[in-house]
Amino acid sequence: MPPAEQGLVRCEWVKGTDDLYVSYHDDEWGVPVHDDKVWFEFLVLEGAQAGLSWSTVLKKRENYRVALDGFDAAKVACYDKGKIARLLQDEGIIRNRLKVEGTVKNAKAFLEVQREFGSFDAYIWAFVEETPIQNSRRRMSDVPALTPLAETISKGLKKRGFTFVGPTICYALMQATGIVNDHTRDCYRYAELVGA
């Protein structure tokens, strides 16, 4: 039975969406990430989403995996103008020049963070002392678009050379990667992640 038909109570934003979106909510959103390759993937995808819907990005995710060498930051950091030009012709990804060039720039910044801190994971989780923030939202309208912590993380990333990491994008990144649990209290994933 597809996830959308299982009758579980989920966050409001999932209702009426396709199974890809439901699976993302059920299996990934809010689950703490500790793998640098996954961190780079989410940085790319959240930046690509700017001005678009998340479902648009999810539908292109597999294409991004192929186009960006499995989200290998070391490989992406070496992309030259020719590779960028080819990516801009790839209908499987979002063909926005600033976003594509920003992905390469972010790969280079990502590698610098890894060199300095040992991993991007160590750098980003230090903002919350390695402990996810467990919110207690009653409804999605209670969830802010950004927080002071998202602003702090955004400033830190920008200072290190990242782009497409404004506070709103950073808060979405925090939610997606489990730095913050913003599942609403009635969502079946809320209790599971509080106890994780």
The CATH architecture can be given as Orthogonal Bundle
Strand-residue proportion = under 5%
> What is the name of the CATH topology?
Endonuclease III, domain 1
Q: By helix and strand content, what is the structural category?
A: mainly alpha
Q: Note the main sheet.
A: 2 strands, parallel
Regarding CATH, which class?
Mainly Alpha
> What is the number of E strands?
2
Shape: globular
Rg from C-alpha positions? 17 Å
Number of domains: 1
Helix content: 40-55%
Number of separate helices: 10
Q: Which residues form runs of ≥5 with pLDDT under 50?
A: 1-5
- Corresponding CATH superfamily: Hypothetical protein, domain 2
The strands making up the biggest β-sheet line up spatially as: 1-2
Please trace the helix and strand order, writing H or E for each element.
HHHHHHHEHHEH
End-to-end C-alpha gap: 26 Å
**Overall pLDDT metric:** 94
Please summarize what this structure is:
This protein is mostly helical and 196 residues long.
Explain what this protein looks like in three dimensions.
The chain has a single domain (19-24, 32-194), classed as Hypothetical protein, domain 2 (Endonuclease III, domain 1), CATH 1.10.340.30. The chain contains 10 helices and 2 strands; from the N terminus they run αααααααβααβα. The protein has helices at residues 19-27, 36-49, 54-67, 73-76, 81-87, 97-117, 120-125, 148-159, 167-176, 188-194; strands at 133-134, 180-181. Strands 1-2 form a two-stranded parallel ribbon. Helix 2 (36-49) packs antiparallel against helix 6 (97-117) and helix 8 (148-159) packs across helix 9.
